[in-house]
Amino acid sequence: QVQLVESGGGLVQAGGSLRLSCAASGRTFSIYAMGWFRQALGKEREFVGAIRWSGGTNYYTDSVKGRFTISRDNAKNTVFLQMNSLKSEDTAVYYCAASRAGPAATTTLTSPYRYDYWGQGTQVTVSS
Questions:
Q1: CA dihedral of 81, 11, 84, 3, whole degrees rounded to 10
Q2: What is the pLDDT of residues 65-112, one digit of tens each?
Q3: For the segment 13-36, what is each residue's pLDDT rounded down to a tens digit?
Q4: Which residue, among 41, 1, 4, has the nearest Cα to 20 in the 3D structure?
Q5: Which among 8, 27, 51, 104 has most CB atoms closer than 10 A?
C-alpha cells in the first residue's frame, strides 16, 4: 500500500502562486508515476499533470502549460505542483495520485483509471 498526503492548498488572488506538496509513504518503491488531478464543484475530475518517478518528460493539460510545473524529491518521496499565474478557473480540490503500472499499461497517465492510490485532496481557491 501507498499513502499519499497533500498539503499547500489555500486561498490566493488571481495572478498569485501556490505550491502543493504530495508526500508518499509505504511501498513507495512500487510507484512508477505520480499525477495531479483536480475537481471543481459540479465537474468531473480533470487531469492536471504527471511525472515519472524515475524522471523524463512531464505531462500537462493544455490549460496549465507554462503556468504549472511538477517536480519531485525522490529522497523525500515527495512530488510538488508549483502553480503560477493562477486564474479563477483553477479553483478546485487538487488530488495527487500514484500509479504502479509501467510503460506497458493500457491506460495513459492522463487517465484517472491509471492510478492506484489517491490522496485526500487539498482545496485551492483563486479569487478574482
A1: 0
A2: 999 999 999 999 999 999 999 999 999 999 999 999 888 788 899 999
A3: 999 999 999 999 999 999 999 999
A4: 4
A5: 51
The CA R_g of the chain, rounded to the nearest whole Å, is 14
Nearest-CA neighbor of 28 among 94, 66, 77?
A: 77
Per-residue buried b or exposed e for 2-32, using 16+ beta carbons within 10 Å of the residue's own CB? bebebebbeebeeeeebebbbbbeeeeeebb
Residue 1: Cβ-neighbour burial (10 angstroms; 0-12, 13-18, 19+): exposed
Amino acid at 51: I
Question: Could you tell me which of 96, 109, 105, 16 has the C-alpha nearest to residue 57?
Answer: 109
Reading the block at residue 14, the C-alpha cell is 488571481
